[in-house]
Amino acid sequence: MTDQLAVAGDGIPERLRQIEDRLAIQDVICAVTINSDLNEPAAALACFTDDAVIDYSSVMGPGSAGVPVKEHRERLATFLPGFDKRQHQVTNFQVSLQGDEASCISQSRAVHFLNSEVWEAWGTYHHRLRRTDLGWKITYQRADLLHQIGQHLVPLATEVVANRSA
């Protein structure tokens, strides 16, 4: 019972602080996907620290491991906006807190529509996060692909983006 009543330096009970942190971590992870789906890349990028690293090698190939977040977002901009609609869902969060650092494993489902076809991917996210003056920020994000269908649509979406730019 004393652990539940322990009070942090700011007067907030430690258990309440942990709950707030867990919710904030879930919120920032979800904010990346919702802002991506709403075609708000700057808002998605704001969820990361400047030195964040991305590993999407299981989805996009070996050249997508250890990529700086800004470069990763630039790569996504070459094809994601080519889809008519997108919806990412993230759930089943397993958060581990270690002071101002945290890690989280979660499950994801991403659905991308192009004309009457669908690219759908299921996977597991692995995040590392850091508490900053602006709240929790992602320092590392890895997507482990479990299964996908319709991946042939990615080059078509890339063409759509290229044609818009031409």
Short recap of the structure:
The chain is α+β, with helices and mostly antiparallel strands and 166 residues long. It is 35% helix and 42% strand.
Give an overview of the whole structure.
The structure is a single chain. The protein is of the alpha+beta class. The protein has a single domain, classed as Nuclear Transport Factor 2, Chain: A. It contains six helices and six strands. The protein has helices at residues 2-5, 14-37, 41-45, 57-60, 69-76, 153-165; strands at residues 48-55, 67-68, 85-98, 101-114, 117-132, 135-149. It has a six-stranded mixed beta sheet with strand order 2-1-6-5-4-3. Strand 5 (117-132) and strand 6 (135-149) form a beta hairpin. The longest helix is centred in the first third of the chain and has 24 residues, at 14-37. The mean pLDDT is 93.
Mean pLDDT: 93
CATH class: Alpha Beta
Largest sheet: 6 strands, mixed
Proportion of helical residues: 25-40%
Order of helices and strands: HHHEHEHEEEEH
Whole-number radius of gyration?
Answer: 18 Å
Count of the domains: 1
CATH topology description = Nuclear Transport Factor 2, Chain: A
Instruction: Assign the CATH architecture.
Output: Roll
Which residues sit in consecutive blocks of at least 5 with pLDDT less than 50?
none
Please work out how many helical segments DSSP would assign: 6
Question: How far apart are the first and last residues' alpha carbons, in Å?
Answer: 65 Å
Strand content: 35-45%
Strand segment count: 6
Helix/sheet category: alpha+beta
Across the major sheet, the strand order is 2-1-6-5-4-3
- From the spread of the alpha carbons, the general shape counts as elongated
